[in-house]
Specification:
This protein is mostly helical. The protein contains 16 helices and two strands. It has two domains: 183 residues, MFS general substrate transporter like domains (Growth Hormone, Chain: A, Up-down Bundle), CATH 1.20.1250.20; 190 residues, Growth Hormone, Chain: A. A hairpin with a 2-residue loop joins strand 1 and strand 2. The chain is globular, with a radius of gyration of 22 Å. The C terminus is likely disordered.
């Protein structure tokens, strides 16, 4: 294994040690930022990562990819430093924390959009096989890193509210140094390509999708949003209401990541044995079942089932459903039917739409949470998701039943 590949593995693992992430909602809530403001701050971060998704591509003619990744990690450090200052004991400043979220979101977007390019560069001599092997192995290691950091971060928070944030700052500094040590030649700026014939206004040709591809693109973006938005901005409130000890907070929310990892790990084996339709059904049942469990948690509690146990089961189901969304989508969307140059555009559109839907759902969920409470919020989100997916299925049922031919 080359030195650069080892450095990249270290970068990928260390950069995903998000010590502060599981306790971010708890911290902002505990410093009396206000529920509406907390939701706004979380939603802004997600929206910023979406609208700046092309920032790295814009800067590539002027900087090496590894420098862009390192710069992104440094922006994350600055964002965390501003956030700490904005939530210090001397006073809480919403606008300062908002600026912190914008800076951190830009840094996250820049780093995560460029690190695959760094990997492609350092594995060029080994071809696509080496790239795929390192990509797959490092992604598995990232899951574990996120889980470990979540648990450790909640323990650190129990000792001092700012320790998880200091730890994440150290992680980003180390990550910046590691990726900067990777050997990468500066590439010349790519020449501007002539406009494709038939492109409107001299731009890129319009992305042409059939009804089935459009359905699965929307299914992916909406389903991911309906899992991640509650996880980020609603479910922490459930465990705050239960007065879960801070040192358990990260471990509890880590169940979501663990369940998603299990689904991703065994989805191929499940597909070979039961097929895509079964995985789709299991994904939908897990997601809807989770929201219903949370929504009726008070009813279950009145009938002798512990609130905390309900939460554990429900968050595990939500993680299982979240992990199934991508395998189901990739198995059905039929990328082979698209020209090779349009496949990355489709995937990029899916991720961009997911970011927008996630931000919108955070705003909606925050309002519902403040006005109607946790149980009603989860039930309303469940009804909205079922209706939206139902409409998608009803308008594209023939295409879903018979995927487009390659």
């Amino acid at each position: 294994m080359s030195r650069d590949v080892r450095l990249f593995y270290c970068y990928r693992v260390i950069s995903r040690l998000y010590f502060h992430l599981p306790v971010l909602f708890l911290h902002l809530y505990n410093v009396e930022m206000g529920l509406y403001n907390v939701i706004v701050l979380l939603a802004v971060y997600g929206l910023i990562t979406t609208v700046t998704s092309n920032l790295g591509s814009t800067l590539m003619p002027y900087m090496r990819q590894k420098d862009l990744v390192a710069s992104g990690e440094m922006l994350k450090v600055v964002g965390l430093a501003v956030l700490i200052n904005g939530t210090s004991l001397g006073g809480v400043n919403f606008w300062e924390v908002l600026i912190a979220q914008i800076i951190g979101g830009c840094g996250f977007s820049l780093a995560i959009s460029m690190d695959a390019g760094v990997l492609r560069n350092i594995t060029a001599s080994g071809g696509n096989e080496l790239f795929t092997r390192v990509q797959t192995k490092s992604q598995s290691m990232m899951f574990i890193a996120t889980l470990v950091a979540g648990s450790l971060g909640s323990i650190l928070y129990d000792y001092h509210v700012h320790w998880p944030f200091y730890a994440s700052m150290c992680v980003s500094l180390t990550s910046s140094l590691l990726v900067f040590m990777v050997h990468e030649e500066k590439k010349p700026a790519p020449p501007k390509k002539a406009s494709a014939p038939g492109a409107a206004g001299g731009g890129k040709p319009k992305l042409q999708l059939d009804a089935s591809q459009t359905f699965w693109m929307n299914f992916y973006s909406l389903s991911r949003a309906f899992t991640l938005a509650p996880f980020i901005g609603i479910l922490p409130f459930y465990f705050i209401e239960l007065q879960v000890d801070p040192y358990l907070f990260g471990s509890v929310l880590g169940l979501f990541t663990m369940a998603g990892f299990i689904t991703a790990l065994y989805s191929n084996a499940f597909l070979k044995r039961f097929g895509l339709s079964a995985l789709l059904a299991a994904t939908l049942v897990s997601m809807v079942g989770s929201m219903l469990l949370f929504g009726f948690s008070e009813w279950f509690s009145l009938h002798g089932i512990d609130y905390f146990l309900i939460g554990l089961v429900a968050i595990g189901l939500l993680g299982l459903g979240s992990g199934g969304v991508r395998p189901v989508t990739m198995g059905n969307i039929n990328l082979a039917a698209l020209p090779p140059e349009q496949r990355p555009r489709l995937l990029g559109t899916m991720e961009r739409n997911f970011g927008v839907y996630n931000g919108i759902l955070l705003f909606i969920g925050g309002y519902l949470l403040a006005e109607h409470g946790f149980q009603a919020t989860m039930l309303i989100l469940c009804v909205i998701y079922v209706l939206v997916i139902g409409v998608l299925f009803s308008t594209a049922s023939s295409s879903v039943a018979q995927p487009a031919e390659g």
